[in-house]
């Protein structure tokens, strides 16, 4: 009986630790999008490592797939630039995987400018725990107008 209690306690502790890790990872990603909504580049910057990589998979007008890279500072300038309506990326946490100091997160999203739908896609995040804090090292996303399951939520 004591062995079963010990095993159950260990399992509960491990599950709680894993949930705390996932919550911390979600918080970092949520801070990124909260920073976008508020045009708060300081909050956004705290979500990323200094040498983070940002990329987008998109189709060109002639239908070819292209991967575009963006420097974090350029992204921050674009978010900070005055715009008439809030930049609102609405995400869904679909998958969060953690192995030690590496995490992978998959988030379908719908992007709105104010109340107007712009586009949708999926974000794929790679996070690293540095100095005890989770930071986004790599973000790649897709962008399209449809089909957009996330847009209706």
Please, could you describe this protein's structure?
35% of the residues lie in helices and 42% in strands. The protein has 3 helices and 7 strands, in the order ααββαβββββ. Strands 1, 2, 3, 4, 5, 6 and 7 form a 7-stranded mixed β-sheet that branches. The mean pLDDT is 89.
Name a few traits of the molecule.
153 residues, alpha+beta, seven-stranded mixed sheet, 3 helices, 42% strand
In short:
The chain is of the alpha+beta class. 35% of the residues lie in helices and 42% in strands.
Number of helices: 3
Kindly state the mean pLDDT as a whole number?
Answer: 89
The share of residues in extended strands comes to 35-45%
Coarse shape: globular
Helix content: 25-40%
Structural class: alpha+beta
Order of helices and strands: HHEEHEEEEE
Task: Please compute the radius of gyration using only Cα atoms.
Answer: 18 Å
| Euclidean distance between termini CA atoms | 47 Å
How can the largest sheet be summarized? 7 strands, mixed
Low-confidence stretches: none
Q: How many extended strands?
A: 7
What is the secondary structure topology, with strand pairs?
Elements: H1 2-38, H2 41-47, E1 48-59, E2 65-70, H3 72-80, E3 87-91, E4 95-99, E5 102-113, E6 116-130, E7 133-142
Parallel strand pairs: 1-7
Antiparallel strand pairs: 1-2, 3-5, 4-5, 5-6, 6-7
Helix pairs in contact: 1-2
């Amino acid at each position: 009986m004591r062995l079963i209690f010990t095993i159950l306690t260990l399992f509960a502790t491990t599950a709680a630790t894993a949930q705390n890790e996932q919550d911390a990872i979600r918080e970092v990603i949520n801070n990124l999008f909260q920073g976008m909504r508020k045009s708060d580049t300081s909050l956004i910057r705290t979500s990323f490592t200094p040498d983070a990589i940002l990329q987008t998979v998109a189709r060109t007008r002639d239908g070819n797939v292209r991967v575009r890279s963006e420097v974090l500072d350029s992204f921050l300038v674009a978010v900070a630039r005055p715009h008439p309506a809030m930049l609102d990326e609405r995400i869904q946490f679909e998958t969060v995987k953690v192995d030690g100091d590496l995490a992978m997160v998959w988030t379908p999203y719908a992007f709105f400018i104010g109340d107007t739908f712009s586009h949708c896609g999926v974000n794929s995040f790679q996070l690293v725990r540095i100095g005890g804090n989770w930071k986004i090292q790599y973000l790649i996303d897709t962008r399209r107008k449809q089909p957009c399951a996330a847009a209706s939520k």
